[in-house]
Amino acid sequence: MRNSFSLLSVLLLGFILGWLARDENISRPEIESDVFVSEYPLNKLEVSIDKKTDPTTVPPIILDKKFLANTQLDKLIELMKQDANAEEQANLDDQLVRHTVSLLSKPQAENIERQLENLLNIESIQSRILPLIISFHTKSNNNEIAMEYLYQLRRLANYDDDYNRLTTEMKTLADRHIKKLDHAKQIEKLTHFYQKILNLEPDNFEMQMKFAKHQYQNRNYEAAINLLDVLVYHSTLGSEAVELKKRAQHQLNRLLAEDVPIPMTRNGHQYIVNAIINDIEPVKLILDTGASMTVLSPNVVSSLGLADDANKTMRFSTANGDVRAAIVEIDKLDILHYSVANLAVGVLPSFPIGDIDGLLGMNYLSQFSFFIDQENLTLQLGAPE
Known about the structure:
Blueprint: H1 2-22, E1 31-32, E2 47-48, H2 65-68, H3 73-82, H4 86-105, H5 112-120, H6 126-139, H7 143-155, H8 160-183, H9 187-200, H10 205-217, H11 221-231, H12 238-256, E3 262-263, E4 265-267, E5 270-277, E6 281-287, E7 294-296, H13 298-303, E8 313-318, E9 321-335, E10 338-347, E11 358-360, H14 362-365, E12 369-373, E13 378-382
Parallel strand pairs: 1-2, 6-11, 7-10
Antiparallel strand pairs: 3-13, 4-5, 5-6, 5-9, 7-11, 8-9, 9-10, 12-13
Helix pairs in contact: 4-5, 4-6, 6-7, 7-8, 7-9, 8-9, 9-10, 10-11, 11-12
């Protein structure tokens, strides 16, 4: 096998010299020694090569352009290394790293992205060429692409110091890019960048808080609330998230107040609105500003699977006199977009109109400012005054 490898090297050398003779010379980068992943250069292109490898004493394995552009490059390199000794393998890796430097020096070259992808598939050189690619993209202000490669590089870190150093670099680069987009008022691009970061790192709660503030500032209150729903339980960000969520909910309610008023139907002197309980149960409720509590029929409560608590009752005044009725709690009651969560309701045995499911009382209505437009048969809800 050893002889076959040497023969292969000689044949490759003879066959490829013509190609190399007309190619541009690949400049040899400045060589430093024993540089680990954590010391990757972000400000200049350079290659780290171990002192043990001396390219001047190891017979080179010549690689031509067609070979390097092959989509199966990683598998071909693996085959070549099977019969190579440690020095030859190191020399081969050095050539591949130099080729990466050459590619990055000519960013307009044909198929450069595909070639870089092929090179990144070679495990033995990933930690050496990723810093080069990151440096290239940061200098070219391709910060989003640089961030993706930084995440790849951090996954290769074997020690906490290296991981933490890369995390700090990622934060610095992300903050710089966010500031740049924010200053340029590129709202859509900034939103996309936040989403990309959170897709790469879903547990980056600090970035999620920044994204929530961004959404709030741009009046995307519902999106901000969705982000804050997770953060309200965070040990350090929780109190800030709770406060911001309250403000976002208040602003959302104000926006919703500008929507089309809620239609009502009329039955004699009574006004009826359609509502949804727990997202599943449609009901018809009589609007009753004289009732302190919302009331439901036993049939609705039963269909919701809610059980009466004998220890929770309340006295209600009805046309037939005072009655004591059970109290249950529903997850939420929605009328169009207007939602009230964890609402206590009374359970009365009957209502004066057969197809009515209950009364809409003040414990719901008082959560909003409201106006009953009797002439146009609409109910207008808005933020509390």
